Structures are given as C-alpha cells and as structure tokens.
C-alpha cells in the first residue's frame, strides 16, 4: 500500500508540473496574441489618422482647382489630372492602393503649385492664399499622421517577424502592414506651396 501511495504521489507531482507547464505556455501564447492584436489596432488607428487628413485634403482640392481655373485657363490639363487623381485616391479600396494613389496626387499637387508661379494675379488672390495656407497645414498634418502610422507599423511588423511571436502571428494570420512611404525622394518633403 505504501508503494502505491508513493507511486501515486510521484505521478500526481509529474501531472501537476506538466499541467503548470501547459498553463504557462497557454498564458504566454495568449499574451503574445493579445500583444499582436494591440499592435495591429495601433496600425489601424494610425491609418485612420492619415485617412482623416487625406479627406480634409480631398475636400480642399475642388475649391483650390476652382480658384486656379479662374486665373489659369492654360492649365486645364493639369487641373483635370489633379481632380482625376483625387477621385482615384478617394475611391481606393485599401491602404496599399491608397498609398500608391496618394503618391501620384502629391506629385500632381506639387506640379500644380509650381505652374501657379506663372500667374501673379492668382498668387495675390485672398481666396487662393487662404486655400494655400490650409493646404500647407493639411500637408503638415498628413506628415505627422504618416510618422505615427509608420511607427505603429514598425512596432507591429517587428512583432510579426520576431521569434517566438511570429509563430502566433502565422497561426492566426497576422500579416505585415505596409509603410506609407513617399517613393520619389524629391517628394519626401511636403510640397513647396509657399509663394513669398
């Protein structure tokens, strides 16, 4: 009887230790999963901040184009291109597609502002100056939102790629997020839209 009792105690001890190890692994996996969810939510929050600023810019562009049209009839093709790119960016289905469209739109806006230099009356128009100032502020806000978003993407991607969290990421289909980068180094800075 004493032998059975000792064997039973050893078996119970092994089972308890095994149970504790399994519980620790489960707690660890749940913790990593929750951390991935948290970082993914930061990425989505960062993108929503960019989205708000982009919508502000989308709303401003038609007014800017109207004012420029009054003074710069020769720039009709450029104005149509800006509106077309604005509409394409606004209708993008996902962040990756929107990032590509935003790069094109930023380049077109920069080109438009360079062409406006040839119209001194337009540069003196108070409506245009107000719109220009608003656009400058929006571009600055987009830059700040982009920095926050890219920081959140960096932290999330690091977690998705790092061992051992990459095991949980693969199992539950956490995919790397895409950075919001400006490809052309000339356009890495805000468009120069000051005329002073």
Automatic annotation (TrEMBL):
Residue ranges of the TM segments: 12-33
Classification via InterPro entries: LemA-like_dom_sf, MamQ_LemA
Topology class, membrane: Single-pass membrane protein
Superkingdom of the source species: Bacteria
Protein's cellular compartments: Membrane
Family in the record: Belongs to the LemA family.
Protein name in the entry: Membrane protein
Organism this protein belongs to: Marinicella pacifica
Lineage of origin: Bacteria, Pseudomonadati, Pseudomonadota, Gammaproteobacteria, Lysobacterales
């Amino acid at each position: 009887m004493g032998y059975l009792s000792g064997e039973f105690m050893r078996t119970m001890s092994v089972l308890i230790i095994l149970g504790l190890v399994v519980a620790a692994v489960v707690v660890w996996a749940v913790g990593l999963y929750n951390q991935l969810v948290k970082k993914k939510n930061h990425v989505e929050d960062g993108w929503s901040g960019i989205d708000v600023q982009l919508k502000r810019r989308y709303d401003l562009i038609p007014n800017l184009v109207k004012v420029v049209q009054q003074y710069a009839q020769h720039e009709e093709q450029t104005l149509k291109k800006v509106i077309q790119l604005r509409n394409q960016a606004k209708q993008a289905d996902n962040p990756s597609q929107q990032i590509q469209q935003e790069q094109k739109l930023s380049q077109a806006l920069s080109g438009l502002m360079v062409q406006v230099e040839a119209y001194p009356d337009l540069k003196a128009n108070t409506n245009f100056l107000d719109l220009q100032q608003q656009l400058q502020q929006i571009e600055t806000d987009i830059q700040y939102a982009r920095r926050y978003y890219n920081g959140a993407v960096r932290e999330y991607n690091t977690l998705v790629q790092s061992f051992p969290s990459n095991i949980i990421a693969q199992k539950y289909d956490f995919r790397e997020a895409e950075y919001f980068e400006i490809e052309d180094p000339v356009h890495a800075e805000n468009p120069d839209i000051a005329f002073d």
